[in-house]
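Hi everyone, sorry if this is the wrong subforum. Our group has a chain we'd like a structural model of before ordering constructs, and none of us has done structure prediction before. Sequence below.
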Amino acid sequence: MSSRRNFIKKTTLAGAAVTIGSSAMAMSAKSYNNIMGSNERINVAIAGLGRRMGGFKQPIALKDSNAKLLYLCDVMESQRIKGLKAFRAHIDYNPKLENNIRKVLDDKYVDVLINATPDHWHTPGSIMAMQAGKHVYVEKPCSHNMNENEQLVKASKHFNKVVQMGNQQRSSGHTIEIIKEIHNGIIGKPYKAVAFYNNGRGEVPLQKSAAIPDGLDWDLWQGPAPRRDYTSETWDYNWHWYGWEYGTAEAGNNGTHELDVARWALQVDFPQQVYVEAEKRQFQDDGWEMYDDMEATFKFSDNRVIKWDGKSRNSYSTYGKGRGTIIYGTEGSVLVDRSKYVLFNRAGKLIKEFNSESTESGTALGGGGSTTTKHVQNLFDTIRGKAKLTAPIDDASKSMAMVHYANVAYRINKGFDIDDKTGTMYDREAMALWSRTYEPGWDIKF
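Answer:
Right subforum, don't worry. Here is the predicted structure as tokens:
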């Protein structure tokens, strides 16, 4: 990428006098703009055109981003068509439509892969991109298991690539502000955080053997996961709840965000202990195969604690809203979510309430918003050397580890101790779930 930019920069400068003196007046505005600033332009490919696709329209289309969308990639034909239609309302050119991510990554002109595929593709697809010389924006959860979590960080260092996880609240202005104030002592010493989420998801159909939907490359959708026959309802959103081959349950689907804010506020890394109480509570006979209700407790050094309260299918608003994080300190407390923060003193008196202008809040976040835009632009600016990542993968992966610890504790039905320096789980049954089984030929190697 550096060589390409240097070449374009030199050739542009060499021909500047001729271009400006004669040809420029004959050029279309579009052609002229393609030359100006092209040495800074970032070429982007998006893999996975489902619910998160909408979050990337604005950051790619904005003039300040100086980005160009080269590819829209998805294993479902209808998703590609829908994606093109959605982006054409924001850009005046046609990106290429592609089924196979390998062909996208083979294109040397692609600088960045936005990886918005299902969970089981996040780490393998991101490492494939880095091997091909691309920087990566990987949606949460950045990994499917602890081994992938570790390998993703190693790969970013090995290939010297910029990797940002989609925990976009790290780029939220009001969140950055209040976290800084917490670190500066505004609530005394923070000792506990409660990360919460509640939603009213409905009944999920039972999986049944079915014909592969028209236009779906089922083999490639499975990717690194072991092969099996297609079952109805799987390729779209319900893969989240159909076992552990593809998804990471609600903790990975949404808990990643709030747990990340909690860990950020308390300035902690790996916990020393985890234990959970979790179960499937609603619609006992439907197709949902995981817990839909979880309370997890993570204990850290210096008597700091983070609790996760996640209810997937019960909308009771325990904390007065659908999602957010409460941070308790020796001199006060803070509630922060994607739209605001509220500061209280130790007596519970309201000290300050700040409402942001964020267009990204609530529990239904398929379309993106202002915070995602800032997060993607932060990646672009970091690649250009003009900023630092707000969610570098070596730090984001520690928040991701909390999700994996909670899921493992649920699966083995017991808590366990953790090495807070390395993240290793001090339990034989837990360590048996450190990785997963891959389809032959899909093991992570670099």
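For your construct planning: The first helix runs from residue 2 to 14. Residues 1-37 have pLDDT under 50 and may be disordered.
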